[in-house]
Amino acid sequence: MDVSYLIDDLNDHQRAAVSAPEQNMLVLAGAGSGKTRVLTHRIAWLMQVENIPTYSILAVTFTNKAAKEMRGRITDICPQQIGGMWIGTFHGTAHRLLRLHYQEANLPEQFQIIDSDDQKKMVKRIIKSLNLDEKYYPAKELQWYINDKKDEGLRAKHIQVGYSQQEKQRLQVYQAYEEACQLAGLVDFAELLLRAHELLLNNPSLLLHYQQRFRHVLVDEFQDTNKLQYAWLNLLTENNSYLTIVGDDDQSIYGWRGADVENIQRFLREKDNPVTVCLEQNYRSTGHILNASNQLIKNNSDRLGKELWTSGEDGQPIAIYSAFNDYDETRYVTSQLKLWQNSGKKLAECAILYRSNAQSRLFEEQLMAQQIPYHIYGGQRFFDRLEIKDSIAYLRLINNHQDDAAFERIINKPKRKIGNTTLDKIRLCAREQGYTMWQASLFLIEQKQLSAGANISLSGFIELIKRFENETSELPLFQTVDHVIRHSGLHSMFENEKGEKSRSRIENLQELVSATKSFVIPPEEQEMSEVTAFLAYAALESGDNQADEFDDAVQLMTMHAAKGLEFPQVFMVGVEEGMFPGQQSADDEVRLAEERRLCYVGMTRAMQKLTLCHAESRRLYGQEKFHSPSRFISELPEQDIEYIRLKTQVRRVQQPTVKQPAFTRENQDISGFRIGQQVTHPKFGEGTVIAQEGSGENSRLQVNFMGVGSKWLMTAYARLETV
Ligand code: ATP
Ligand code: MG
């Protein structure tokens, strides 16, 4: 078979990696150098040249989006079906293993995944049941503690504590939490990985089976693996299999979650004859973008050190836009998007990247107002919305009566006269008897330990769930969902909420029915039932699959979520001290270095055009904050950047005389104000217009307010009125 097409359009180093004999291999290289490309071509090569069967290949990456893309790229270059190949995220792959071997993993068949929100609620309940004061033992902190330990591979029984009372209590919470989850058949995200690791460790024959099956394990974005993930990979490949890892130490951005760049060194130390391939040519970005990114990351010490070059053009310098405030920032970005669109290019080629999800709101508003379609990754996922979680909790409880998290969520939703007293009794009974909430309820009802009224209400709830179970057992999933939403009373409860919110909740419920109707069990989960696969999808899916994914829309996401992706035009927004790097990172060398890597990740997503924006003032938590440009901007070489608005330009127009000639008609029409005019502002009171700058949408006014002083305001947003 002619396989030259797999290596023809690769450079020498890439080709060497793709066509290497079977071996352990590290591909270490900077952003945009073709690592992911090498990985996918390598997989195709192994199948076609080394005759490795598809089922002997396991490819792992970090996000659902990346996994999906990888599957697509491999399908494109392979003539044969790749159905048997395992391609997925770490969490997805661990989940699959646990489903296949739930007995060996000591889980009930109907075990469910809980998200971070449910986890926090569980922890809260445990804290309460142990009579600890939440002031000293905040649920969030304990949740972190538990996840941290799990990421290190440690169960409560492995942890030694000294004399510290606090340490002891924490451990007690961890232990009680473990027990409660085990009883209810619940598995959190960190548990997926820990259990999948233990599954292999504790079952030698199973381990051997998978070691023999997966002859090649390949991992993208390896720099972000944590200890446990590494241990799992290592175990899986320690018996004559090969591990190929691809990564970039400069793009390690999950240190705060326990990711450990040391894993790269560990791999080199522990694996047999690992071969390292370095790639240095960048194919993604223009010269200016690449050079500036290289310079930025040089400010970090402790790098493995590598430099990228490109044979491409320098392109346009990186634009630095200094906005007056956050509104101005969004307006500038949207105006640039319009220009891009008007020149006949696709909006989908543009991305807006921010440090935290909360920053998306203003952009959403502005994009909506300007009728620019957009697509947000992350943020509040569809499956995280209250009404969706409620509906899904019904599904979960029908599926597994012992699911405490689901039980608590819907026991009194809609209201069915089950108050806190009854709930506390159930909790207490569960704790004392070692029961789940469901079992405790049955016990209390049978023993007549509740008031007559509570007994009736609780029995009613139990009967309802059992009835649903019978009524829906033969129905396809979407009809089950529809049935449950209508007959549980959820639908009418949300309908009665009234207002805009109510409408959107009802729409979302309908959307949930459509989502279940169009749900197709993914190729790697064929062995699961429809409802199980769907519940897993609802828990693990990260908002990648919104309906408008294929529309031509601007992409909005955090810099973390943008890892591995590329876009012709990128806007990084909020590049300010106090935002990026954030306040807490500024004084901490380790965290600052991680923020800088994140900045490197963000910048290197851009192919042709990169703009960094910062705002001089922005509203945060209801307060006006003043930020200076991020230090990262000052670390970029002058020759690679271009300031869109120089501060001095602004100052030049700040003190015009009152005698200045009248505005042109055009200006006056747009701004509606003239210099010398008396105006009022809802917050600053009365003042005089003393300067005007910009035109059209970008028009700004300087107003001297009595007792407040002079302020620059965006004309369109200032809510000024003439006196
Ligand atoms: P990141 O670190 O951001 O994940 P990466 O190293 O994985 O980047 P890829 O996404 O594989 O880089 O490649 C970057 C871009 O360069 C892609 O558009 C890819 O198709 C292109 N590319 C890679 N190698 C070559 C090549 N030899 N010739 C032409 N284009 C290439
Ligand atoms: Mg990549």
UniProtKB/TrEMBL annotation:
Residues 8-286 form the UvrD-like helicase ATP-binding domain. It is an enzyme of class 5 (isomerase). It comes from the Bacteria. GO terms for biological process: recombinational repair. GO terms for cellular component: cytosol; DNA helicase complex. Keywords: ATP-binding, DNA-binding, Helicase, Hydrolase, Isomerase, Nucleotide-binding. This is DNA 3'-5' helicase.
